[in-house]
């Protein structure tokens, strides 16, 4: 009799489930459906329009034998590694600095977060002006009398990736700082009191106690940064347009150019599938770490 009176778990929170249904359907149809369409037609010989002429792995073979694609992968790997490391390290250091209950904390926090409020297009244009050899920092210093001063990162094939890195870190570090600061503010004050009583230096407390406790914050921040790195496009377009030559090419720009400028849908979808696979490689371990172990 008690079992008959117990409500069916599938009918619990029906209002919330009904409200979430449109979002779930949109996700399934638009995101999952379009992703499957992308993967399927990446094996086709589609040009300006999708066609059902499937050619196996021919598009992927061409993709990985194209110097432009290989250069874009090299660039995104270099940019991603250094951007990830610098953003996490500098963001955490700034958060630790802000966590000391300093004066004018709100002002400093606003200053650090301001770049993140800008779009990558605006950031790219601003840094293009700053790093332009004939308009920006180099010309300003030379006008002060240092005629031999050279700072032409954006005009040199070998250093243009550093110019993108500077602009990207400048914009994203404030956001990382905000996430880290939220994690630090969640640490119990009793831990700090115990560390002071035991005579443990503050830097050791951060490294051996606080950082392990913030594992969830670090993993979430890592996933957010990594997903943004894979999608890097607008900063490159606004700042360098992929130049000089193909020196600052990135995968997202490669996809856009082949999809719209060159009307080669098959090649663009093959590159998109590789990018999608990369994102899944990032997300699946995160999902397992965050939810799989907890469920177990």
Overview of the structural elements:
The structure is a single chain. By secondary structure, this protein is mainly α. It has one domain: MetI-like fold. The longest helix is centred in the N-terminal third of the chain and has 32 residues. The protein is flat, with a radius of gyration of 24 Å. The model has no long low-confidence stretch (mean pLDDT 85).
Helix/strand-derived category reads: mainly alpha
Tell me the name of the CATH homologous superfamily.
Answer: MetI-like
Order of helices and strands: HHHHHHHHHHHHHH
Number of domains: 1
Give the oligomeric state of the chains in this entry, treating copies of one chain as homo and distinct chains as hetero. single chain
The fold-level CATH name is: MetI-like fold
* Binned strand content: under 5%
Q: Which outline best applies?
A: flat
CATH architecture: Orthogonal Bundle
Distance linking N and C termini: 32 Å
Number of helices: 14
List keywords for this structure.
mainly alpha, MetI-like fold, 72% helix, transport, MetI-like_sf, cell membrane, MetI-like
Mind sketching the topology for me?
Layout: H1 2-5, H2 14-41, H3 58-63, H4 67-98, H5 105-117, H6 120-131, H7 137-143, H8 160-185, H9 189-197, H10 202-213, H11 215-230, H12 234-239, H13 251-261, H14 265-295
């Amino acid at each position: 009799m008690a079992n008959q009176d117990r409500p069916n778990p599938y009918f619990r929170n029906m209002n919330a489930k009904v409200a979430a249904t449109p979002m779930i359907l949109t996700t399934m149809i638009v995101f999952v459906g379009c992703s499957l369409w992308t993967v399927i037609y990446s094996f086709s010989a589609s040009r300006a329009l999708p066609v059902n002429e499937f050619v196996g792995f021919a598009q992927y073979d061409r993709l990985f034998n194209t110097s432009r694609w290989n250069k874009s992968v090299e660039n995104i790997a270099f940019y991603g590694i250094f951007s990830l490391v610098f953003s996490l390290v500098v963001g955490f250091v700034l958060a630790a600095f802000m966590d000391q209950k300093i004066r004018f904390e709100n002002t400093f926090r606003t200053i650090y977060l301001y770049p993140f409020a800008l779009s990558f297009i605006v950031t790219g244009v601003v840094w293009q002006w700053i790093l332009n050899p004939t308009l920006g920092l180099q010309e300003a210093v030379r006008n002060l009398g240092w005629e031999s001063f050279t700072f032409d990162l954006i005009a040199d094939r070998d250093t243009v990736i550093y110019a993108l890195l500077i602009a990207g870190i400048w914009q994203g570090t404030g956001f990382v700082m905000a996430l880290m600061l939220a994690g630090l503010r969640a640490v119990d004050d009793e831990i700090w009191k115990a560390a002071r009583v035991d005579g443990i230096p503050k830097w050791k407390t951060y490294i051996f106690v606080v950082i392990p406790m913030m594992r969830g914050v670090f993993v979430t921040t890592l996933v957010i940064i990594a997903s943004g790195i894979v999608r890097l496009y607008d900063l490159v377009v606004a700042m360098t347009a992929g130049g000089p030559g193909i020196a600052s090419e990135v995968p997202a720009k490669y996809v856009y150019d082949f999809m719209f400028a060159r009307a080669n849908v098959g090649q663009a979808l093959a590159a998109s599938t590789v990018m999608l696979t990369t994102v899944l490689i990032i997300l699946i371990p995160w999902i397992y770490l965050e939810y799989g172990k907890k469920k177990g």
